[in-house]
Amino acid sequence: MIYTVTLNPSIDYLVEVENFQMGKVNRTSYEVKFPGGKGINVSRVLKRLGNDTTAFGFIGGQTGEFVKRYLRQEEIFTDFTEIAGDTRINIKLKTGMETEINSQGPVISKENYQQLFSQIEQLKNNDILVLSGSIPSSVPSDVYESMAKTCSDNGIKLVVDTSGKELLSVLQHRPFLIKPNHHELGELFSTKIKNVEDASKYGSKLVESGAQHVIVSMAGSGAVLCTDGDSYTANVPKGKVINSVGAGDSMVAGFIGTYEKTEDIFSSFCFSLASGSATAFSSDLCTLDKIEELLPQIEINKITGG
Ligand SMILES: Nc1ncnc2c1ncn2[C@@H]1O[C@H](COP(=O)(O)OP(=O)(O)OP(=O)(O)O)[C@@H](O)[C@H]1O
Ligand SMILES: O=P(O)(O)OC[C@@]1(O)O[C@H](CO)[C@@H](O)[C@@H]1O
To answer: Which EC number(s) does UniProt give (predicted)?
Structure first.
């Protein structure tokens, strides 16, 4: 079973405004609400790929009820920790460009934190745990490191999609997969990732530091996969970007969902790219049909000297 943790779920409120004017009253031309938060997105895509998944995380209030109801309709298992505060609302504003306003989210009590942590302690050998998204300020900032240690002690495959020192802190626990984008990778090494060679060079350093697989996503410029000693690049398929919210989460789901079925890192990498782009080309997250339509366009090449 693949478990996801979303410490700060959301309702993603997508609004489209034509001729947007700062400081004026603007009216929407389209609006829609989706359950959000990175782990929840991973679970939603995994379900569409046919993998068993359960979503963990903190949930509360009417907004939390919306998230739970939506996931129930999609027949996604959840085992959320109920909290006193309200699940946040994140605004995704489309005005010709994409602007995101992510809220801080509710306060999490020590008891709530303990409840979630004990769920992680109960996972079994061969389960997969995905940790992704921001950490609420009321939760210990080393939560990912603590959960990573529990996974490594109990033989659980760990996937982490975060950035900065939280990402660095989990490397000692040998995560199965991490997926920084090229900006996040650059920030870790105080540099700019300009091309696949840079992505391979710095992604490989994260492998040396403990990650088993590193996918560096580079938006429309493809992605790089670094594994023990080797690096590979893959292109993205052609298409019109409609909404990139959740594209990175779809890549994570595409990789681990395929790996769980095939144990083949190359088909998992192809599926990862196709899933990311299928989401970028859709208004909601990707569907299996859309992924399969894009899959033949993806080509993997070994990076020589990588
Ligand atoms: N212009 C594009 N054309 C095709 N695919 C794209 C494009 N932009 C993004 N994607 C898809 O989305 C994936 C993730 O993009 P990106 O590198 O921006 O990751 P991210 O920052 O984690 O994403 P997110 O927008 O979810 O935060 C890419 O690997 C690709 O599959
Ligand atoms: O505030 P965080 O936790 O960093 O990111 C939250 C978020 O932007 O990530 C998802 C897309 O990846 C959205 O569903 C959600 O709104």
So the answer is: 2.7.1.144
Tell me the C-alpha distance between 120 and 126, whole Å.
Answer: 13
Query: Which of the 8 DSSP states describes residue 228?
Result: T
Backbone angles phi, psi at 193, to 5 degrees: -90, 110
Enter the pTM of the model. 0.97
How far does Cα 83 stand from its chain's mean position? 23
**112 Cβ contact list (under 8 Å, min separation 6):** 58, 81, 83
Q: Which atom, in ligand 2's list, is nearest to the CA of 36?
A: 14
C-alpha closest to that of 87 among 48, 122, 58, 126: 58
pLDDT band at 305 (very low <50, low <70, confident <90, very high): low
119, 127 contact by CB (below 8 A): no
Q: Rounded distance, CA 207 to CA 270, Å?
A: 20
How far lies 216's CA from each of 9, 99, 184, 186, in Å?
24, 23, 9, 10
Is the ipTM reported for this complex over the cut 0.95?
yes
Give the whole-angstrom CA distance, residue 12 versus residue 279: 15
Ligand nearest to the CA of 279: 1
The set of protein residues with a Cβ atom below 6 angstroms from ligand 2 is: 8, 10, 12, 36-38, 41, 90, 100, 102, 133-134, 245-246, 248-249
Mean of the per-residue pLDDT values for the chain? 96
Distance (Å) of CA 34 to CA 11, 27, 260, 264? 6, 20, 27, 32
